[in-house]
Amino acid sequence: MFAYEQTLMNDIFIEVANCILQKKAGVLCLITSTCGSTPRKAGSRMIVWPDGSVTGSIGGGATEKEVIQISLGIIDTDSPLMLHFDLTPANGQECGGSLDIYLEPVGRVSRVLIFGAGHIGREVARLAKQFNFIPILIDNRPGFTSQKNLSEFECIEGEYSVIINNLQLGMHDYCLVCTHQHTFDIEVTAALAPYPLAFLGMIGSQRKIATAKQRFTTEFGLSEAQIASINMPVGLPFVAETPEEIALSIVGGLIDVRNKKKGLK
After folding, report:
1. I want to staple 80 with a disulfide (CB 3.0 to 4.6 A). Which of 64, 104, 113, 194 is the partner?
2. Which of 77-81, 128-132, 141-145 has the lowest mean pLDDT?
3. What 3 state SS string does the chain have?
4. Can you give the pTM of this predicted structure?
5. Which fold has domain 111-261?
């Protein structure tokens, strides 16, 4: 291997590490195997960035262009992909060989937006952080999020409806609703339901959930599909009592959803 190729590969490793540390989205493209004549050999790497620019190369030409386009299509997912290319004249290529390329999204870390910075919300934030989520505590009580015991977390204070409109919510966001009032829980959950979230859960008893479902339909006009997508009562089904135990149930559910999105079983 030429010295400049080794330097380029090392730079790719540095870029991948920076991706993860800075939570910057990208797609790592790795040639895993080749057969016959190909522009680059196994081990060649490239990172595709959200704007379509790249670091490194897997050979250039039509194949690299196609890989870039496919990478942009999966950059917002958690799903890796394996591609096979036959570089034959029939496919518009002249090399004559073939290669396999592994694509893996890297760097993106999901947010857990916790509406309600009370006992349960704080415990969920602490535990979610340990499992590589980015917890954000949100509360509408003046001065509540400035408490000393919340200094390790990003906190947002204000009216829930205004905050929701400014969050730029998307498919990587996990939302938990556990405010200090049942009315706020229902209103916030109804406002979040139309967004294409990775997860939406509301804490509550069976009686509260029955009331919520009725209001979701009659007052907020949510569809049956939107209501069915809400995890309520939120959390994995085991007997939990303390805020720490309830948080364990909730974060376990978040991990379950995240791993299923990756295709794990």
Report:
1. 104
2. 77-81
3. CCHHHHHHHHHHHHHHHHHHHHCCCEEEEEEEEEECCCCCCCCCEEEECCCCCEEECCCCHHHHHHHHHHHHHHCCCCCCEEEEEECCHHHCCCCCCEEEEEEEEECCCCEEEEECCCHHHHHHHHHHHHCCCEEEEEECCCCHHHCHHHCCCEEEECCHHHHHHHCCCCCCCEEEECCCCHHHHHHHHHHHCCCCCCEEEECCCHHHHHHHHHHHHHCCCCCHHHHHCCECCCCCCCCCCCHHHHHHHHHHHHHHHHHHHCCCC
4. 0.75
5. Rossmann fold (3.40.50)
